[in-house]
Amino acid sequence: MKYVKILAATAIAFSATFASAQTTTNRVAAEKDWSVFVAEGPKECFAVTAPKSTVNSRGGQVVQGVVRSDIRLFVFYRPGSNVKGQVAFTGGYTFASGKAVTLDIDGQKFTLSSKGEWAWPASAAEDAKIVAAMKRGSNATISAQSGRPTFTKDTFSLSGFTKAVGIAAQNCG
Fold this sequence. Notes:
The protein has three helices and twelve strands, in the order αββββββββββαββα. The protein has helices spanning 2-21, 124-136, 161-171; strands spanning 27-31, 34-39, 44-49, 53-58, 61-62, 72-78, 83-90, 101-105, 108-115, 118-120, 139-145, 151-157. A twelve-stranded antiparallel sheet has the order 1-2-3-6-7-10-9-8-11-12-4-5. Strand 6 and strand 7 (83-90) form a beta hairpin. 33% of the residues are buried.
């Protein structure tokens, strides 16, 4: 029960922060497939990328014309909250309740918690493992399910990730 309360509080805090992340236009760097943004009030820096490919399916069949809002993979730094390297994903739809969101980095798999349109690792230690894997990897694929149920598979390039994350960390260090 304690874990559920912590997860719910974390989801509420993430939702407010992630919403502000999507509205800032202060891009300070672009490194191959990744961009770095800095927002103020409170200070927040993040590296972000959009998917290189997206596959949507229902009943095992690929479907076209699925409407999704922005699909992004982030790594956040918030010095005022002592957040360093927090991984987050927004899939552009509300995730199905109780269904796993899976992150696969070149064969290394991680399970993400989700609430609404956002998914993230369960702990700072898991964030660190994912960031380390992303620095070594070439692609990250996130698989999830909406409430409709549409299954999604979004693949992100990790080209430029290490440098982008370094710039974000430096700007919020």
